[in-house]
Amino acid sequence: MSKYQYNQEAVENLRLSDTSILDRLVDFESAREAHLKKEHAKKDKRMTIGEAVATYVQDGDILTDGGFSYVRTPHQAFFEVIRQGKKNLQMIGAPNTNQSFFIVYGCVDYSHNSYTGAEMRGIDKSYDRMLKAKRVKILSEWSHGGIAQGFKAAQLGTPGVFSKQMIGSDIVRYNPYLKVMQHPLKNDPDPVVFVPALYPDVAFIHCHAADKYGNAYIYGPAVNDLAVAAATRKLIITAEEIVPENDIRYNKQGQIIPFFYADAVVEMPFGAVPGNMPGYYYWSRQWWEKVMRFGGASDENMKAFLDEWIMGTKDQFEFVDKLGGAKWIAEARRQTKAAEGDNEDIDFSYEEYTLKHDSGLYY
Q1: Entry pTM
Q2: Residue 150 belongs to what H/E stretch?
Q3: In terms of pLDDT, which residue wins out, 217 or 363?
Q4: Which of 7, 81, 222, 346 fits a 20 to 30 Å CA distance from 192?
Q5: How far apart are CA 188 and CA 70, in angstroms?
Q6: Spatial CB neighbours of 37, under 8 Å, sequence gap ≥ 6
Q7: Cβ(165)–Cβ(199) below 8 Å
């Protein structure tokens, strides 16, 4: 049984006879031990994504990522986890939009759930269907802000934070980690939610550049990545390019993840494909449209689509070739500059996918 006391109403809603499965996400002692064992000397941590996944992702781990939805998300690293057949994983994120790919292949059994979808492409119907079929179980429900505060508490080294997040919703009834209590400094009734520090087992964060030691640079908003880097027990950095340490030290103005958080560094051009990498390439809207419309229609459709795109490719370069190769790269670079306000005379239109018309075009 668990050594922690959880929100009893949420536990009853979950129908968990043994709540110890919830422990690791909030287990400060094991997280602190893992952090103390990290290498604090400058060490060359470069390896392939296959080596990084084989070494640092273990069956049963709690997995999270950086970026936001399809923006700067380590999709290609995730696909390698799937190819290696890791099992019994839990996923947490804000949003938690890529977990359905794992569930299709039986890699993820448990979800710490927030929004699951592809922005304007809509809610992930495949995830909904697999949830109803009990192929995945939700262990906790969160708002984006609630998860962010849990990661931030871990980064700060505090047991948790008092918050107003989620207090006006039923989320607190379905999240065993949250405790509603009276504001400790006020006499008049003023409820607050205690959000505990959250410690994932392994995080993948895709960055624009990194050096061989693990200092990593993010162009644009870091979202939760700096907090996640500090909170996670194991951190795998994937980067569009590996650069000299001095380039990170003197030339990069923006968000920097320090080297002592990183366990592995992987040079991975196009590591966010088919997502967006700000400043580098735009997301493949047609790919996402098809996975949501075609894949969302049935389990058979989703499996066939992912077999083609994940199991049918060995790395990001083969994936990009299937998207359209050099033609797709050139257009994706033009589009991301246009999306960021440069060279605005770009035609973003394309032939939309329907179930009745499978053109096979992804660029």
Answers
A1: 0.94
A2: helix 144-156
A3: 217
A4: 222
A5: 44
A6: none
A7: no
- Three-class SS of residue 65? strand
pLDDT tens column, 274-300 = 999 999 999 998 899 889 889 989 999
- Give the residue carrying structure tokens 């409820």: 191
Beta bridge pairs of residue 182: 191
Q: How confident is the model at residue 22 (pLDDT cuts 50, 70, 90)?
A: very high
Q: What DSSP letter does each residue of 287-342 carry, written as one string? A: HHHHHHHTGGG-HHHHHHHHIIIIIT-SSHHHHHHHHTTHHHHHHHHHHHHHHTTS
DSSP 188: S
Extended strands (E) in the chain: 62-65, 89-92, 108-113, 137-141, 160-163, 179-182, 191-196, 202-207, 209-210, 216-218, 234-239, 255-257, 264-267
- Nearest CA to 74 among 87, 64, 86, 84? 64
Domain ranges of the chain: 8-267
Provide the CATH topology of domain 8-267. Answer: Glutaconate Coenzyme A-transferase (3.40.1080)
